[in-house]
Amino acid sequence: MIVNSLSGRFLLLTVAFVMLAEVLIFVPSVARFREDYLLSRLERAQIASLALLASDEMIDERLEAELLRNAGVFNVVLRRDQARELILSSPIPSPVQATFDLRNAGPMTLIPDALRRLADPVPRIVRVIGEPVREGGQLIEVTLETAPLRAAMIEYGLRILLLSAVISILTALLLFLAVQRLLVLPIKRVVRAMQVYAEAPEDTRRIITPTARVRELSEAETALQSLQTELTGALRQKERLAQLGGAVAKISHDLRNILTTAQLFADRVGESEDPSVKRSVPKIVGAVSRAISLCETTLAFGKAEEPSPRLDRVVLAQLVSDVVESERLAAGEEDISFAEDIPATFLLRADPEQLYRVLTNLIRNARQAIAVTGKPGEIGIRADEDVSEWQIHVSDTGPGLPPKAREHLFQPFQGGTRKGGTGLGLAISAELIRGHGGRLELERTGPEGTAFVIRLPKGADL
User: Fold this and answer.
1) What is the DSSP letter of 74?
2) Distance between CA 263 and CA 282 in Å, rounded?
């Protein structure tokens, strides 16, 4: 329906407003028409009285009646030389019911009188007083019937209303066409562009190109273009991540089989009587077991989900010691020291394998950040707790995170903290901690170093 369309509502509103404006014009116009009508009757009556005076008041009754009929009045009273004189007269069909003085009448008087005359259909006899034209006396007074006046006012009002209707329709039509061209058609183009884009959001050719000349519409198209561009990029990245997840899942499947074989050989090596071998084999077996577990969880991650954590009591000092020892071996000749400030009896509830992965990612990132500087550094791991949560702090004395890494810190492939990094480590770590109901947060970063904190909520008592 036309009422439900933007251009249709503009059309109806335009007609309504134009008609309202015409009504506001109509009322004073009708009042002015009534005043002009009465003044013209006074002027005609003055001309008729002057004709009588010019003939030395010698005129027959038929000519006098014709003069009054042409003037549209019943009688004429003229005041000249301080004398009030009845110049022309004829029988009045009924008593005078009202008197109107036009000499000092203003809009506040003329408008109500005109509206009352329009609203009163009963013919009445009224007296009208005015000033003679061209100094033809001090005052002129006539009596006349209101029926011709009201008929003339109605006729004039109808002409005004008809003209108003024509103007409003023409104005509304022009505005309708203007709204169609300037607003409706551009909006329809935007809607069509959105529909076309929704059919294939990965296709960059379907992204809208701003063409509107109206500033507001141009801003809307620009905002839509930016939104579509970001969405297309996100969809492409999601597709690449899905493909990468599939590839990683395939690799992890085969790697798991290889590592299982390596675990069997490690178990056999453990039977050796060499003391150094006996000390190394548990570490090797533990590392291989963790690698197998990582492959299995990677297969789950390839399905776009991490397995739910298997919560258990964890002796944090022992878990951190295993992570630190592995990183010490990886550090090799790098001048990096590790400071562990964790009580031996510090217990928390978490999935040990997932927490091991998170700590490994954080400590490895810290070690690599320090190694890039080529200077000595220290990595600190400490833990504390309060009534609601456990907190694990991992800090380093590295160069701090670059601005881009801080902006997209926990986003895959965007929050890499070093050149060539993918940012997957922090993204996976944050996801794993969220699975525990906790948070991984950046405490601080700057030239003096970087610190992360793992917050794990306390659930049931240990």
Assistant:
1) S
2) 11
373, 287, 368: which is closest to 323 by C-alpha? 287
- Last residue of one domain, picked from the residues 282, 305, 328: 305
Residues 22 and 109 in one domain: yes
Global pTM value: 0.44
Sheet of 336-341, strands arranged across: 336-341, 377-385, 389-396, 449-457, 439-446
Within-domain flag for 14: yes
pLDDT at position 77: 87
Q: What percent of the chain has pLDDT over 70?
A: 78
Instruction: Please give the structure tokens belonging to residue 394.
Output: 């991992």
Secondary structure of residue 270 in the 3-state scheme:
coil
Range of the domain at 348: 308-457
Residue 106: band (very low, low, confident or very high) from pLDDT cuts 50, 70, 90: confident
The answer to whether the beta carbons of residues 444 and 319 sit under 8 Å apart is no
Non-local (6+) Cβ contacts of 143 within 8 A are 73, 74, 75, 92, 96, 125, 126, 127, 128
User: Residue 53 in contact with residue 87, Cβ under 8 Å?
Assistant: yes
CATH number of the domain at 346, please: 3.30.565.10
Burial 338-348 (b: 16+ CB within 10 A, else e): beeebeeebeb
Q: How far apart are CA 208 and CA 211, in angstroms?
A: 9
The one-letter amino acid code at 369 reads A
Q: Are residues 63 and 147 in the same domain?
A: yes
Q: What are phi and psi of 38, to 5 degrees?
A: -70, -40
Which has the closest alpha carbon to 372: 417, 316, 436, 437?
Answer: 417
Nearest to 74 by CA among 56, 54, 94: 94
Distance CA(70)–CA(93), nearest Å, equals 18
| CA distance linking residue 366 with residue 296, whole number of Å | 26
Among 173, 193, 219, where does a domain finish?
Answer: 173
165 and 26 both lie in a single domain: yes
Cα 4 from Cα 96, distance rounded (Å): 57
pLDDT of res. 462:
47
Q: What angle do CA 317, 321, 322 make, to 5 degrees?
A: 125
